[in-house]
């Protein structure tokens, strides 16, 4: 069942839980994530990130039809989301392809440009009925996991102004997480998150969700996080499942990787749902 991010977040708020949001740069990962959600009877978000095309993993116009087809035939609500769209033309392309939600990421730009471009993204999304997530502040490391710029934590006042002036449906903010594999345990700023949640009226998104402790997951959910992005450890589970093994045919390796990713996703969903 294909739904928007706004639909998914209403479910999350009603249950006081977070919905898992997983990057799916190939058919195997789409199958693993939706399969996990169906087995647990939980809503899910599948994502294509602009950086995945830039890295040569997949082109949006190739993976989008697969994501949309699998989402539409799923037995649970599935949102098809563009993750970290850093230019408006790419966001528009995602909307034209049928994405039910997009993230415009102008966090690396001056605030006035981020505000203006995010407002344009909201206007474009309204034409198709899609939802919009956007980010204020910066986590530093890029979506690819490579080193990026300095982490700039989101200030509560900036979060309030940004969400109110742009009309976004979900707010991604920086409070201590990072993309990729953590080299040490992340130190999350719960007080900052709590203040942002209290003075804004939009669901909060946590990026860099892989590698966060179960205790910290539950804490951020209690403080208003309703969408948790998760990819690195899922992908790592798939790779480790086939590492060092010899296969006669590719599909056998693919099936083992799918099974391992599905198991990892089920664990993540269960934690996000408080089970």
User: Quick one: CATH class?
Assistant: Alpha Beta
- The CATH topology: TIM Barrel
Biggest beta-sheet profile? 8 strands, parallel, barrel
Mean pLDDT: 92
- The percentage of residues in β strands lies in 15-25%
Which class best fits the helix and strand makeup?
A: alpha/beta
CATH architecture: Alpha-Beta Barrel
User: How far is it from the N-terminal to the C-terminal residue, by CA?
Assistant: 23 Å
Number of distinct helices? 11
- SSE string: EHEHEHHEHEHEHEHEHEHH
Helical proportion?
A: 40-55%
Low-confidence stretches: 143-150
Work out the count of structural domains.
1
Number of strands: 9
Compute the CA-based radius of gyration: 17 Å
What is the CATH homology-level superfamily? Aldolase class I
Coarse morphology: globular
Describe the strand arrangement of the main beta sheet, using strand numbers: 2-3-4-5-6-7-8-9
Overview of the molecule:
This protein is α/β, with parallel strands linked by helices. The chain has one domain: Alpha-Beta Barrel (TIM Barrel). Helices cover 48% and strands 16% of the residues. It has an eight-stranded parallel beta barrel with strand order 2-3-4-5-6-7-8-9, surrounded by nine helices. Helix 2 runs parallel beside helix 4 (60-72), helix 5 runs parallel beside helix 6 and helix 7 (156-166) runs parallel beside helix 8 (190-199). It is globular, with a radius of gyration of 17 Å. The two termini are 23 Å apart. The relative contact order is 0.15.
